Automatic annotation (TrEMBL):
Keyword terms of this UniProt record: Signal
Signal peptide limits: 1-20
Record flagged with keyword Signal: yes
Organism classification: Bacteria, Bacillati, Actinomycetota, Actinomycetes, Micromonosporales
Organism (species): Catenuloplanes niger
Record protein name field: GerMN domain-containing protein
């Protein structure tokens, strides 16, 4: 056996022995490890626990005092992208309305379909109703963006009309035809968000 071949066989064996004997004694049974304190989004569950067995938290954004406000609803199963958008478009429940929540989406641009494109949700919108002029379009688009961008697997949201990217208002009043995140509407988020 040549020196090179002997080294090629011996070196991995020595490395395995060194790693196996790294000074940490083996344990005979598994042990519980307490999770760290604080918020760790990377380790957070994509489907938060609502405390109710079998229930899942779904977040939608409505408007309270001209600010975007997250509402967590308990659902039996996590909705698909289109169903999640439909829950938003349906507006706040009677109880949510009584709590001061409303929707800027009522009477605005017609929302068509939504489809995933990797980590992007692409929302197709129609023409606005005749004679409609709204000053709260940034809130309306912010509701959609923040609702969809907080979904597991969706990082950004974009809008199209007639197959072309649509320029939509951001919180600062600028128009963007690029992919948006909830951060683009940070100036409109309620203080506790």
């Amino acid at each position: 056996m040549s020196t090179r071949r002997l080294a090629a066989v011996t070196l991995p064996a020595v490395m395995l022995t060194a790693v196996a004997a790294c000074g940490i004694p083996p344990e005979t049974a598994p042990r519980d490890i307490a999770p760290p304190n604080g918020r760790y989004d990377a380790a957070a569950s994509a489907r938060p626990d609502t405390g109710t067995p079998g229930a899942i938290a779904e977040t939608v954004y409505f408007v309270a005092d001209s600010r975007l406000s997250a509402v967590t609803r308990s659902v039996d199963a996590y909705p698909g992208l289109a169903e999640h958008l439909q829950h938003l478009l349906s507006g706040p429940t009677a109880q949510e309305t009584a709590a001061g929540l409303s929707s800027a989406l009522t009477g605005t641009t017609t929302i068509g379909e939504v489809r995933p494109n990797g980590a992007e949700a692409v929302v197709t919108v129609g023409d606005p109703p005749d004679g409609s002029s709204r000053s709260d379009e940034a809130l309306a688009f912010g509701q959609i963006v923040c609702t969809l961008a907080t979904r597991p697997g969706t990082a950004v949201v974009s809008f199209t009309r007639d197959g072309q990217r649509l320029r939509v208002p951001r919180a600062d009043g600028s128009l963007s035809e690029g992919a948006l995140t909830c951060g683009d509407y940070a100036g409109l988020l309620a203080e506790d968000e």
